[in-house]
Amino acid sequence: MPEQNGCFCWPQITVLICTLNEEANLPYVLPKIPATVHEVLIVDGRSTDNTVSIARQLRPDARVIYQTGRGKGDALQCGIAQATGDIIVTLDADGTTDPEEMAGFVEPLLRGYDFAKGSRFALGRPEKKPAHRIFGNWLIVATANILYRRNYTDLCSGYNAFWKEAFRRINFTADGFEDEPLINVRAIKAGLKIREVPHRDRGRINGETNAPSFRQGWKAIKTVVRERFRSL
To answer: Which of 137, 153, 211, 228 shows the greatest Cβ crowding within 10 Å of its Cβ?
Structure first.
């Protein structure tokens, strides 16, 4: 925990959300974020709809910044660099992750963990998840579990929490949709203390995913394998 003048202080929490044309889904996400968080930080990828104006209406205290490059990984890098909280919690903007489960991610960090990684599969198969995406996730996780000697159930959840200081140790550089697998395997390599946290996957509420499934999955597998044989 943060320390000032020899006393432990309650950590400040930044909720980080990356958006791209999510105006229809933000009403299901932003109002459910606890009012007690220190900061709501929205990184927008130059949305062409009313995402930014809707976000400001729903959460007037939110800070909106625009990413400098393209891809979710780049948006995460921009947000993490700008976040002012001691703890950063990442949520998906499409409504798949429930902000009301946030306490389950923060609690392990307060007990000494560096990184609380979400799992959509620890509670069983998500009802709205297509079979090909379930198989793709299984293949990514199986590859990582073999190479890194772990027993994880998910590497692609967008629901995660970590101490900002600890995150700096993983040298995060992704720019595309392979960001979550890269964060997970680099956290392992950096020796972070990791806790897998089950959470519900509610499925995208409106619209279509921005992630190309086959290309995304193949790139994630290549990332997991490549990272095993390179240094941080």
So the answer is: 137
Residue, of 1 and 184, whose pLDDT is higher:
184
| pTM listed for this prediction | 0.92
Burial degree of 195 (CB within 10 A; 0-12, 13-18, 19+):
middle
pLDDT of residue 131: 83
Residue 106 has pLDDT above 60, yes or no: yes
CA 120 to chain centre: 12
Strands 63-66 and 39-44, bridge-based pairing: parallel
Mean of the per-residue pLDDT values for the chain?
91
**Token pair listed for 20:** 């791209």
Name residues whose C-beta falls within 8 Å of residue 191's C-beta, 6 or more positions apart in sequence: none
> CA-CA distance, 140 to 220, in Å (whole number)?
7
The first and second tokens of residue 13, run together, are 């929490």
Hey, what amino acid is at 182?
A: L
pLDDT tens digits, residue range 183-211? 999 999 999 999 999 999 988 888 776 55
Two structure tokens written together for 74: 């780049």
Alpha-carbon span 51 to 20, nearest angstrom: 7
Q: What is the mean pLDDT of residues 65-90?
A: 95
Domains, in order of start, for the chain = 3-228 (3.90.550.10)
